[in-house]
From TrEMBL:
PANTHER family, A to Z: THO COMPLEX SUBUNIT 2, THO2 PROTEIN
All copies of domain THO complex subunitTHOC2 N-terminal, residue ranges: 324-399
GO terms, biological process: mRNA export from nucleus; mRNA processing
Entries under Pfam families matching the protein: Thoc2 (PF11732), THOC2_N (PF16134)
Source organism: Acorus calamus
Span of the signal peptide: 1-21
Entry keyword Ribosomal protein: no
Keywords: Signal
GO cellular component term, pick one: THO complex part of transcription export complex
Gene Ontology MF term list: mRNA binding
Protein name per UniProt: THO complex subunit 2
Keyword Transmembrane tagged: no
InterPro entries hit by this protein: Tho2 (IPR040007), THO_THOC2_N (IPR021726), THOC2_N (IPR032302)
Amino acid sequence: MLIRLMLEYLVAVALLKYVHLLPKDEEAFEHYSAFSAQRFDEANKIGKINLAATGKDLMEDEKQADVTVDLYAAVDMEREAVSERSTEVESNQSLGLLRGFLSVDDWYHAQILFDRLSPLDPVAHIQICDGLFSLIEKTISFAYAVVCRTIIQGSGSLIGSSSDATESVATSSSQSSFVDLPRELFQMLTSSGPYMYRDPILLQKVCRVLRGYYLSALPESGDVVRLDSRPRLKEVKLRIEEALGTCILPSLQLIPANPAVGQEIWELMSLLPYEVRYRLYGEWEKDDEHIPMVLAARQIAKLDTRRILKRLAKENLKQLGRMVAKLAHANPMTVLRTIVHQIEAYKDMITPVVDAFKYLTQLEYDVLEYVVIERLAQSGREKLKDNGLNLSDWLQSLASFWGHLYEDIKWDTSGSHVQ
């Protein structure tokens, strides 16, 4: 107790003397800006054709692509970048002060520094990230215990399909499974950003707690429409949408081939109407504009998907189909969009792709619906041929693909726009 009080006193004194800490924020921001620009350049070069490469080099690349797909490539690039900045935590006194606040669970002052130092991406540092995750774990511990107790008691209100969610709320309420979460938790999740990928177990716990948080806000009668205007339910929805958009979905892109995480995310997202989910998917695509590691992950996923599609056939369908699914587990938006683009151009790919899609999860099917609807609604493309009678080739291919997929693969469309 005495040590804790001493630490609190020291960090309070340091906060008063913040203006004297070195290096100055402007200098640190300028240095990191140059470092970040270099990482963006490296990410943008992924998948680019090397015009100076010889025929032998290109053949070697093709040969290597036949062998395997490195699911950890983006994570390895991020680890190298973090390693380059490892000395920054020791030399930057502002980051050291932030670590001090997190070590004594002082989120109020830690958030001030997170906001002030956001141009430095402080959570990228392992020490700061671990401190933040520890604080998140403590914050949700009680709520997670309530969720687990409810599941053990067999209420089933916090698990199962989304179609049963509102029907089971009365049971949940009767068993005192009320889940409440402080506003500070959502601030912590926003500060975590995509770095929650470093702790998949914590990410799944957060998803379960948020699901319980949403269900406990519903009325006992299950009449969601009637209570949609209530302030608490509106606040809960907005907080969950923020957590999904700023932390949970971006983190998924750096977790290699883990369908269990995707399923936990879907259990949460399935509670939301399709309009909200599709809006979150659209915002998800813009994350790579300011996060280098997310851009690198998407570029690598796009490149690997194209390599696999070149070789996808009946003879290797089982092996390569599973590889496509592994890529889609982490980057469903990028992988599925790339595949849909290829199908529009090459109709012969429909049959092998549909067979490969049997390995996808419910979250990926939902993303696929969004991608197809977006392609249909995209302006600037003629839907009819020049004669004005026949459908364009891309539209015929897309319609044929969706018909084959819907006929051959059955998935839960209870919360879907396409039924």
